[in-house]
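Input record, target 12 of the design panel.
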């Protein structure tokens, strides 16, 4: 009888102890997040980084990091695929270097950059542009369904030139500001509203292309 009582008491105490640990972890994690918000390069930064203080970057470092970006990763809340980010850094590395170094000098990081979103990736694990799909036998050819033979359906074509998205493009910042692959990044960094507008357009185009891929494959949902 005494043993049963002691075992029940032990289980109760153990549960309370585990609950206290969970609450303590949650509280300290929240405090760490608040510290990172108020001081991006303070104690939270030092806990997860090797160097005690952030250092300024260079064009060579930016290009080296861009070369390591995995294009197969799911897009973030902005809807911009890693392939586009990688191409943008390769095309205009000085813009990204200037922005990064300015954040370091001023000790601030945009709250929008701290957001993330969980995205469920299809089991096949491929992108939605036909050259990539064709490479892994998920599409019969790499050409744009709307424009026909000879026109490769890549990100640049879909985003800037394909007539299929002409209406949406004309209503977005791309149409209003006459944006091109060469000046797109600079405009996105200059105005938050432009960045949001272009991100929404990219998300719309990617959603449409994914739907067309499912229809080609005969998917019903």
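The sequence produced for target 12 reads:
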């Amino acid at each position: 009888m005494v043993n049963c009582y002691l075992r029940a008491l032990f289980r109760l105490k153990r549960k309370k102890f585990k609950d206290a640990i969970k609450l303590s972890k949650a509280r300290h994690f929240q405090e760490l997040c608040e510290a990172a918000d108020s001081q991006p390069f303070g104690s939270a930064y030092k806990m997860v980084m090797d160097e005690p203080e952030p250092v300024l970057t260079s064009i060579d470092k930016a290009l080296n990091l861009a070369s390591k970006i995995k294009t197969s990763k799911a897009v973030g809340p902005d809807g911009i695929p890693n392939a586009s980010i990688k191409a943008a850094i390769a095309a205009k590395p000085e813009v990204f270097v200037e922005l990064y170094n300015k954040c370091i000098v001023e000790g601030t990081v945009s709250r929008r950059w701290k957001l993330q979103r969980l995205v469920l990736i299809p089991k096949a694990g491929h992108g939605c542009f036909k050259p990539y799909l064709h490479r892994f036998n998920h599409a019969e050819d790499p050409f744009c369904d709307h424009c026909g033979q000879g026109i490769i359906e890549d990100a640049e074509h879909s985003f800037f030139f394909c007539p299929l998205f002409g209406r949406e493009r004309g209503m977005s910042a791309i149409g209003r500001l006459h944006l091109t692959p060469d000046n797109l990044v600079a405009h996105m960094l200059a105005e938050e509203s432009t960045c949001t507008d272009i991100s929404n357009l990219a998300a719309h185009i990617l959603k449409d292309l994914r739907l067309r891929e499912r229809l080609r494959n005969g998917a019903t949902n």
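Confidence is low (pLDDT under 50) at residues 118-126.
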